[in-house]
Amino acid sequence: MKNIKKAVCVMSGGMDSTLSAYMMQSDGYEIIAVHFNYGQRTQKKELECFEKICKSLKVQDKYILDLDFFKQLGASALIDKTIEVPTIGVQEGVPNTYVPFRNGIFLSMSAAIAEKEGAEAIGIGVVEEDSSGYPDCRKSYIQSMEKSINLGTKDETNIKIYMPLVSLQKSQIVQKSLALNVPLHLTWSCYKNESKACGVCDSCRLRLNGFKLANKEDPIKYE
């Protein structure tokens, strides 16, 4: 019997993590989907998108994890509603939508799941070049997390972290998604809204610009 190779995929319901999961599946991995509810403004919408994307991928095993810790932490416009989400374009430095060490926490929890499930890979849709400047989206950081995860797990555990989008621009992500028949209409990127995307937050701007440069129309609705 052929060994099934498994990958734990961190999936937010957004375009990047969805493409990453589709790429992992096309590379022959059985997907174990992981989604985090961490008190984000668009938590309900992101979970809804995650569920639909899992159906599209025919995912058998999934984890939906609630992290109340982040609400207590605050410190980000994605979580603390007293902090305004910026709508004037990409700012210098790390924007206030950065959630402290979010990917580090997500990867640590995903590593625990991977070790338990016997998965040999973790997939994460971080984008370095075309992201909002989050320090936990850097390739060097993810590589260092991979080393730490393997140092902190059983000797027979050997987990590779895949970040297939890390050096891509949003327009290339749109093109790759269309080539792989990724259901982009099921994805959500907006930081502010859950019905129609605002079109003006950093995430919406990056997404819309990606579609524009790819000469394609975004299938989701905007205000």
Set down the secondary structure blueprint.
Layout: E1 6-10, H1 15-26, E2 30-37, H2 43-57, E3 61-66, H3 69-73, H4 102-117, E4 121-123, H5 139-151, E5 160-162, H6 170-179, H7 202-213
Helix pairs in contact: 1-6, 6-7
Q: Key features?
A:
5-stranded parallel β-sheet, 11% strand, single chain, 223 residues, Rossmann fold, alpha/beta, 7 helices
Name of the level-1 CATH class: Alpha Beta
Give the uncertain stretches in residue-range form. Answer: none
Separation of termini? Answer: 52 Å
Biggest β-sheet description: 5 strands, parallel
Q: Tell me the name of the CATH homologous superfamily.
A: HUPs
Mean pLDDT: 95
The global form is globular
Looking at the overall shape, the CATH architecture is 3-Layer(aba) Sandwich
SS field, number of helical segments: 7
CATH topology: Rossmann fold
Number of strands: 5
Number of domains: 1
Which structural class do the helices and strands define?
alpha/beta
Strand order of the largest sheet: 3-2-1-4-5
Which range best describes the helical content: under 10%, 10-25%, 25-40%, 40-55%, 55-70% or over 70%?
25-40%
Radius of gyration: 17 Å
One letter per element, helices H and strands E, the order comes to EHEHEHHEHEHH
Query: What share of the residues does DSSP label as strand, in percent?
Result: 5-15%
In short:
The chain is an alpha/beta fold and 223 residues long. 37% of the residues lie in helices and 11% in strands. Strands 3-2-1-4-5 form a five-stranded parallel β-sheet, sandwiched between helices.
